[in-house]
Specification:
single chain, mainly alpha, globular, 4 helices
């Protein structure tokens, strides 16, 4: 999926918890995780995780 400015802004505005929830529970083959948007989605998750590793662990535990 192409990474449009609107999609980039949407990803940037979301919390780690929200991104992780989509990453974990989206159906296989979801276009968001393919191509440019998928690369950026993963990069943004990594950035947020690095900023607050404990928060990332808490988000993962909360989602189950």
């Amino acid at each position: 999926m192409d990474l449009t400015p609107e999609l980039k802004a949407e990803i940037d505005a979301r919390t780690y918890y929200s991104l992780l929830q989509q990453w974990r529970f989206a159906p296989s083959g979801t276009p968001m995780f393919e191509g440019e948007s998928g690369e950026y989605f993963g990069k943004r998750m990594s950035e947020l995780k690095a900023l607050d590793p404990g928060g990332a662990v808490a988000a993962s535990k909360a989602l189950g």
